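Checklist before submission:
- one chain only
- standard amino acids only
- sequence pasted in full

Submission:
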Amino acid sequence: MEPFKKIYSEYKHRVYFFVKKYVQKDEDVEDIVQDIFVHIWKYAEKRDVKVPLEAIIFKTCKQEVANFYRKNKISFVTSGHTVIEEEAEESPDEAFTEEQICKIEALLDKLPQKTKKLFIQHKIENLSYSQLAKENKISKTAIGKQINKAISFLKVNLQ
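Returned file contents:
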């Protein structure tokens, strides 16, 4: 019980705000966060110790958000708002069109090579700031600045 309390206290806010980026209603966010921690509680003993806990937590977050959208038949809209679709069966990942993906890839190519590499490793490959800092021999703060620089650039250019 004590290890789970530590995990919960360490990650509760990060998980909440991660889910909040994708779900508007606070009640829904709280339900999803609860489902995430229930999942982690159930499978904590079965987890592979080679896989970082943070990666498991945020992969679970993505799965639970996708389950929420699938269950409620809601799909993402690029403006950040949600639209209810009567017969939507898509997961959030399928909502992106080929055109949007190409636009994002083109924007990523405009970033400095190091920023692009760090962004992809963190967001796509789910590497933590700590892992990236060790691999690149720079501080976690520097990693954070590079990732935020990439996110800001994408936000500005995708609107």
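Reviewer check: The radius of gyration is 17 Å.
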